[in-house]
Amino acid sequence: MTYAKSQATIEDLYHVPENGKAEIVNGMLIIKEPTGAMPSRAGFNITMSLRQMEGKLDGRAYPDNAGFIVDLPNRQSFSPDAAFYVGDDAGMKFLEGAPIFAVEVRSESDYGKSAEKEMAQKRSDYCTVTLIC
Questions:
Q1: Which residue in 25, 78, 89, 125 is deepest, having the highest Cβ count within 10 Å?
Q2: Domain count across the chain
Q3: How far apart, in whole angstroms, are the C-alpha atoms of residue 22 and residue 8?
């Protein structure tokens, strides 16, 4: 992860270079690095399974890189690897509020004490704003 600038805004997410993936945590724009073949494929397969639920549940499946705007003390956005969302369609903008179900697939760099701490905090943030945890 790269920490790009402090006191980032949602508008900054719209200008992440090369259509990259980023989140705002503790007021900082955190650029997420691209993932490898296995984690990308896992996220895709989960999204496809969630897509099958669209006809059975009120909501929509979203793949990696969808942005969700949230209002937490330490986090202003999420960008999970796969998600199911029941809020209003946002058109070309980020979705307002958290998904009811979100998946984070581990990449090669998501191991070790620092990564475990970051993932535990993100899980806690998801549980703060989602219905399913």
A1: 78
A2: 1
A3: 11
